[in-house]
């Protein structure tokens, strides 16, 4: 069975928990283990927070989230039309952050990468960023 | 029934007590970017007023935490260690532990 949803919401920090709930609800039909559901929630939380905090610098904007499921795999994408990432390779390094003054730890991408099976970052300065992640669900069987 | 309608769905709660030379911070709910900002403010005020050196984070009732929680703890570590204190984390669930391990935070705080 395949499934697909598309949600968009205002770039506000209070919507991050909503995005987590949507993602958890979406994968529920794939019969995930509690750990798998938790992993997806954390990864979505990281990607959506980045869009709001970095992409739009906590200003106005819209976050676009999509989820697909196919053959027991979930693919999630989170997109913003914000400032974009200057150096993707650097951004992915553990502990690299451009906002240390806000007590960011520079771990978002590291967490996404290790909690999901794949992570892809597409970004253009001044145009925005799209994060695409996949994870196989129900791997216990 | 009447009482129930007045209860709010609360995403976050934090309680403080001092034990020995430590401020014990009990967090209930979800730690993300939004709640971390709020927690940071409350914890710093409490630590400044309490006449103690160390901090204990009780995360037993934390149902969710992302990297914002790591930023929160590292930020507090800087303040506490500047005064010669240490930070201890207790009650972290499996996912929270994994994030802590990933961050290397385990090397500077006890958990
Ligand atoms: N959507 C985005 N738009 C623009 N820049 C981004 C975006 N996502 C990430 N970045 C950049 O990549 C860096 C690393 O992101 P990462 O999530 O790993 O760490 P962080 O957000 O700085 O800290 P943490 O996630 O631990 O709070 C950010 O500091 C920021 O400069
Ligand atoms: Mg981040």
What can you tell me about this protein's structure?
The complex is a heterodimer of chains A (141) and B (111). The two termini of chain A are 17 Å apart. Chain A is an alpha+beta fold. In chain A, a hairpin with a 3-residue loop joins strand 4 and strand 5 (128-136). Chain A contains four helices and five strands. Helix content of chain A is 33%, strand content 29%. In chain A, helix 2 (34-55) packs antiparallel against helix 4 (108-115). Chain A has one domain (3-136): Heat Shock Protein 90 (2-Layer Sandwich), CATH 3.30.565. Chain B is of the alpha/beta class and 111 residues long. Chain B has a single domain (2-107), classed as STAS domain (Transcription Regulator spoIIAA). Chain B is 43% helix and 31% strand. Chain B has helices spanning 2-6, 33-49, 67-82, 94-103; strands at 12-19, 22-31, 54-65, 87-90. A four-stranded mixed sheet of chain B has the order 1-2-3-4. Residues 46, 49-50, 108 of chain A line the site of magnesium ion (MG). Adenosine-5'-triphosphate sits between chains A (46, 50-51, 54-55, 80, 82-85, 91, 96-99, 104-109, 129) and B (67-68, 71).
